[in-house]
TrEMBL record:
Protein's recorded name: Bacteriophage protein
Segments forming a coiled coil: 53-87
Keywords: Coiled coil
Length: 105
């Protein structure tokens, strides 16, 4: 008689998907400071504080990238306004010059 107990192979899988279609993304969370609990406001799921912190860090990085893109667009718009203003000033200067001294016959 053998004393070795056979175990069936153990298989562990990890789900690394960030977004699961048709499932809540848990972006609106509620913190319970007394119990240290984190719950999703949308679906009520209990979340680990680590998961919530990771999600908030990801959202923060996305927001910072969007701010960066908007600042770049704002700088482009400012430079374009300056170009157009310079062109307008030059055009108005030509018109004024033309009015003040009409061409001689
Ligand atoms: Zn949720």
């Amino acid at each position: 008689m053998s004393s070795v107990i056979p175990f069936s192979p153990l298989r562990v899988t990890k789900d690394d998907r960030i977004h699961r279609p048709l499932e809540c993304a848990h972006h609106h969370i509620r913190l319970d400071p007394r119990g240290g609990l984190v719950n999703c406001r949308e679906c009520g799921a209990t979340l680990t504080p680590f998961w919530a912190l990771s999600m908030l860090a990801d959202q923060y990085a996305i927001a910072l990238a969007q701010i960066q893109r908007l600042n770049e667009r704002l700088a482009l718009a400012d430079s374009r306004i300056l170009e157009l203003s310079t062109e307008l000033d030059a055009t108005q200067g030509i018109e004024r010059t033309g009015k003040e001294s009409p061409p001689r016959p």
